Every structure is written in C-alpha cells, then in structure tokens.
Amino acid sequence: MTAYERVVRFYARYRGEKRVIGYSVLGRSIYAFFVGEHGKEGIVQGGIHAREWVTALLVLKLIGRKVRGGVWYVPLVNPDGAELCQRGARSVEALYLRRDLLQINGGADFSQWKANARAVDLNVNFPARWGTGRSNVFSPAPSSYVGEAPFSEPETRALAAFTLSVRPTFTLSYHAKGEVIYWRFYQEKADEQRDLSLAQLLFEATGYALSDGVSAGGYKDWCTEKLGVPSFTIEIGKEEWAHPIGASRVGKLYRKNKDGVRALCECRNV
Ligand SMILES: [Zn+2]
Q1: DSSP structure string for 57-123
Q2: Which of 23, 87, 177, 221 stands 20 to 30 A from 196 (CA)?
Q3: Alpha carbon of 17 to ligand 1 centroid (Å)
Q4: Long-range contacts of 248-255 (CB under 8 A, 24+ apart)
Q5: 38-49: b or e for each residue (b if 16 or more CB lie within 10 Å)?
C-alpha cells in the first residue's frame, strides 16, 4: 500500500475531527486530522516532498499521541508527487501529462522525485524570499523548481489557506533526511530568542542537532516571516540512508520523534 492509500484509509477510519483542506493538481484530497482541544492549536505537516513520503507515515503514527491543547496534522501535502515516486508514471492518467513528466524526469524511475505533478517543488513555492534560494531552478524539474509565481500551486494554496484559518501557535514540518532541525529565517531579535529556545526543546526531545541553515520559499519560512509563528523543520532519518526511506524504518523514526510535537505543545499551547 502506498503512503497516499494509507492516508485515505486512515481518513475513512478516523473517529476524531477531520477535514479535506484542498486538492492536488490531479484532484487528490489533502487531508487534515485534529487531536486534542480547540483553542491553542499547532499544525504538523509532512509529505510536501514526494520522495520523503515516509514522513506521512510518521505523522499518521503521531496522531495517536495525546497533546496539550490541540494539533492539526496534515500528513501528506503532496499526494500526486508521493504516488509518482511510489508507483511511477502509471499513477498519472492523462497520457500527455505522463509524457511530459517522463521527459522532465529523464526516465521512468521516479524514486528521487520531490515535486508535484506540475514539476513544481512545493517547498520553494511560498512567498518568503521566493526564488532567492541557492538551489532554486526556474523551469520544471524533479526538484527545486520554484513555480511561475509564489502560490502558483493548489497544494501550497491549500496549506496556506488552512494555516491562516487555524492561526496556529506553532508549525512543524517533517522532511527527510539528515537528522537536523531548521528554525532560523530572518527573525527579529525577540522572535529569534523565542524560536531558538523552542528549537532547543525539540533538540532535547529528539536528539537532532540544530542547524543555522536558511532556505527560501518554504512553508516554515512563510510561517516564520509572514505570520510570525514559531516554525520548525525536522529532517528525519540518517544521512546515509538512501531516498526514498522505506516504510520499514517508521518504527525507529517514531521512537526518535514521538516527543517532538508534545514538547512544542507543552510550551505553546498552555
Ligand atoms: Zn524535504
């Protein structure tokens, strides 16, 4: 079963509050699941990069954890990309689109694909110093293409609109790989202190090191710069593991990450 199929099945069976926050380029649903009590609520997202679909499986497992306040979980922001990565070109019905994607990918092996079904990298498509990232590219590609404009993609628009409606106390994005926490994005002094101390809590909860690295156009970047919300990216999985990290690693990844969301809730949802 693919990551997307697992999320669909989870949605059908989930007894708590749940929502479809939007649709992908190919019309697949982007699902959100709520845990806890309304009031102060964080947002946790995964699967924005196709080949990092293991983060969606991690997020599904985290939904079982009790938290202080509330958390909205969006396990798979990029369902088309994840399906492309796991099932290849046959996951795309329209033949003209299949042909385009095969050409952009340079072959039938989509295991390293990061983008959506329009070959836009969703995590460089947000309006936060958009297009200034060092590895950004400006035409369709398996990764790093920023899109025609910020928010050009339905997946990024859906996640942004949902975030604005929730007004979260924090956001946490799961990516793979490298075992590192990103927290910095041109914050003002006071916010920088606040976000650094929260990042240190995440370090204590997970053991992942903090990084000073700064990207551009990401979801975390947008939440930090435009919304002033403490926002973090955790890169799960060992650097030496190959992409895509397989489902057999989820147990281990869960044990390493099970207290991260709770740590942020203990601090931000009081
Ligand atoms: Zn990623």
Answers
A1: HHHHHHTTS--SSEEEEE--S-HHHHHHHHHGGGG---HHHHHHHHHHHTSS--TT--S-TTS--GG
A2: 177
A3: 27
A4: 249/54, 250/54, 250/57, 250/58, 250/61, 253/54, 253/58, 254/58, 254/61, 254/62
A5: eebbbbbbbbbb
Fold of 3-268: Aminopeptidase (3.40.630)
114 CA to centre of ligand 1 in angstroms: 8
> Ligand 1: distance of its center to the CA of 49 in Å?
5
pTM of the model: 0.98
| 145-194: pLDDT as tens digits | 999 999 999 999 999 999 999 999 999 999 999 999 999 999 999 999 99
85 CA → ligand 1 middle, Å: 14
- Joined together, the tokens standing for residue 270 give 């009081």
The C-alpha atoms of residue 2 and residue 197 are separated, in whole angstroms, by 37
Q: Compute, in angstroms, the gap from residue 167 CA to the centroid of ligand 1.
A: 23
